[in-house]
Amino acid sequence: MFWKWSFRVFIIFLGLWLLLDLASRVGAEILWFQEVGYLQAFLVRLLTRGILWVVVASVSAAYLLVNLALAQRLKYPRSLKIEEVELQSEFQNFLSVDYARRDRISTPQTQDLKPLKLRWLLPLALILSLLTGLMVAHYGQIALAYWHSPVDNASLPIPALFRPERIWQLLNQIVSQIWDLGLIVGGAIAILIFPGFLLTAIAIVFSAIFGLMLFQNWAKVLLYFHPTTFNSTEPLFGRDISFYIFSLPFWQLLELWLMGLFLYGFVAVALTYLLSGDSLSQGIFLGFSQKQQRHLYGMGGLLMLLVALSYWLSRYELVYSSRGVSYGASYTDVTTQLPAYTILCVVAVGIAFYLLWRTLFWKPKSQYRRLVFYGLGIYLVLVPAADVVLPNVVQYLIVEPNELQREQPYIQRTIALTRQAFDLEAIDARTFNPQGTLTEADIQKNDLTIRNIRLWDERPLLETNRQLQQIRPYYRFPDADIDRYTLKTEVSSDQPSVPQPAPKQEVIEPLQRRQVLIAARELDYTAVPQQAQTWVNRHLIYTHGFGFTVSPVNTVGAGGLPEYFVKDISGDSTALTTSSQGIRESIPIGEPRIYYGEITNNYVMTGTRVRELDYPSGSDNVYNSYDGRGGVKIGSLWRRWLFAMYLKDWQMVLTRDFLPDTKVLLRRNIRQRIQAIAPFLQFDSDPYLVSADANRNNTDPDYPNGKSYLYWIVDAYTTSDRYPYSDTANEGINYIRNSVKVVIDAYHGIVNFYIADRSDPIVATWSRIFPNIFKPLSAMPINLRNHIRYPEDLFKIQSERLMAYHMTDPQVFYNREDQWQIPNEIYGSEPRPVEPYYLITGLPNVTFEEFILFLPYTPRQRTNLIAWLAARSDSVNYGKLLLYIFPKERLVYGPEQIEARINQDPVISQQISLWNRQGSRAIQGNLLVIPIEQSLLYVEPIYLEATQNSLPTLVRVVVAYENRIVMAQTLEQALQGIFQPVVTPPAPIIRPVEEGSPTAQ
């Protein structure tokens, strides 16, 4: 009795705990979304997920449990004795020759039935129970995958459907894993022993899993009900692309759910009938009664309707086929597979309607009954024949001997739609023929390009920053980003200092664009000494990073170290040190504190009795109190309990340091922050920092007034893997657009989403679903808009697709005769593929310099340059792609060839070998290919670093042009060596005189 009451009390407390946990999660999320201003979007998602789970789980449970209950009523009772045969004697006679000729049972209750004896009953029951076990394994794997995935993940792929090929995969997995095999067989036997309880329990579990599947795929449901047309059709069925992006995934999701529902319902009911009346122990099943047959006919009719739907959807899935030489429906798919799926669909519909008609208008005997069973048998034979045998025969005997001729129109479809899906059609392809006529006058004419050649790579600059600018161990520079700023003055000396008021007589130089590397000094709590990692330090004192550094990419200070436009922590009202007053005016520093960043992974409380560490000043520390707009107030007792339950942090309830205005700052990692608000977008891997006065006139309500702040800009993408005929390659997607720019305030945590590509139908659909999230790009402050750049992740994907899909002729594509590749370069001492890089340069036939993203190409298995791709980032030209193709009959040096020439140069290789002595090593930096006028200039920096306590310094710059290579201490000297060579006469060659020769006499 005590244990029974204890168990009940435990269940009650567990239920209350789960209820409180759910309530705390929902309540805390509502308060957080209200703080960031996106509560409506959260409520729409919450309501959608809740409705989907309740409806799907309820419908599934009702269907399964009602049918199982009906089967329990219609099954044979256990007290029914068919014949007095013990199971042991039945097994003894099981293999007897006379077993099959035993007299049939002819009682009045069974005279119209067809009994199943043990040799048929046992295998049939075992097969159905094993099928149930496989379904449990399949949907259990789906449930585990969904359980471990984020709740708000909107890009989950639809799991594999429970079709014959999936059953075969499961069988192979189970046979290879002895434990899995034991569990499946043991479960199947348990179902045979305890069918009533286990079949009902599995039905309840399946209902919850089905609800979870639709719950996690809420995004596909919302997209289905708010589609936007692409105004473009695919060539096989002539349907708009929107059908494949928005509608087909929804129907596949329904198929996944209903297939499990109807198949399990049919199998569970059939097992209930087969195992009734102690059939296994009696060694014989009486046969299906008329009511049982009618019940099974109805469930079988629904199952066959779903099979018909499955084959109908399979017709559309052919546009994702990988059978032929190109992605999408091939000759075999169109001429063989498509008609086969159509026939199988029609036959399945016919069988389904007959079964449902028999269910509604039942007759004990039907003249078509035998025909239906024969039809089912023929159907089961047709399925593998039409799905496997016939397509393979056509592929090997008809297609492969004439592959180019048969596949040519389908290759054309793949090329066209892949180029559409990755926006390669928008690339402006031009011919670029290097003239090799670059002169010193051209170099002076392109002074802005020369002044912005990047000599400092991200890696050595970060290493130097960590040595010189981290100030304290708990600060860290997680990243350095390329950007461009318009500056009023240049750095006047190699030793920047704290800016002083400019004298009145100083003449401000004209504005000039400079390419810079900007890095945020964030707080890394993991670097705090272990003894100091207390709850108070973690959540109340160490709350934010401070400031940033800005370095020009092309200048070098004393000792080969980078120069800084912005650096240090000044310890007074100026906050950070700048190299000049003009720099301070050009790069505004209003609020340098970073509460939201790339490595701020913990939550903090501000406005408490404990002072927050602001920044170090000499041997002391300066403290600050957060006055930003971020955070949720937790001063009241119920809110403290709410967030303590949500965060599982009971110190929040026990501490006495909180005040009425205390706030908790959650999701301070900017990736987590924007992912929580817009989980249906894919975000770029490289957020970058911008220092700008975003609200200079105090007129923008989205940005706080009064100060300049630091902002993170993140590129966001809409993606899909459902674009017809578009090649998925390695990324698993076959459609992408950079549709959204996200701006996050590093101090206040305010997030704004701006639509950058209004022509994208997917973002148009999401903006209809969540109208309060997105703003037009024109609403972004101009000072921030000047810093948007073409995203590197998108550029990489497009450039990789372009390697094959620049070939638009089907025959050339089939032969792969003009395939490109991304060249390698030597970085450090290891070869690696060239990464896209940003430049400020003038494009050919363009009269001004601009900020571009650049990548060269070489032919497959060759090292000379064949083309280069540029993405523009400035003003009205933002987003435009230009492809410059070199003449094939001319040799243009590629990065690998230039690297080889550098390393083969006796003077350069000797110097590098001298540096690579014990205790130090030379690092060859990124080799940059820079277009200037109608020529190409190659520049590679060389760094020297110690093997311990690395502090890289820039020691040399190598410049190559045409057949000339020069290494010098500075870029200017190297360019002079290239374009102002000092011509000296060759030394005379004096040969030694051999003794005894005629000339010696």
From TrEMBL:
Chief site of localization: membrane
A Pfam family it matches: UPF0182
Membrane topology value: Multi-pass membrane protein
Record keywords, A-Z: Cell membrane, Membrane, Transmembrane, Transmembrane helix
InterPro entries named in the record: UPF0182 (IPR005372)
Cell compartments where the protein resides: Cell membrane
Transmembrane segments annotated in the record for this chain: 52-71, 120-147, 192-215, 256-275, 296-313, 340-360, 372-398
Family membership: Belongs to the UPF0182 family.
NCBIfam families listed in its UniProt record: PRK02509.1
HAMAP family documented for this protein: UPF0182 (MF_01600)
UniProt protein name: UPF0182 protein H6H03_33295
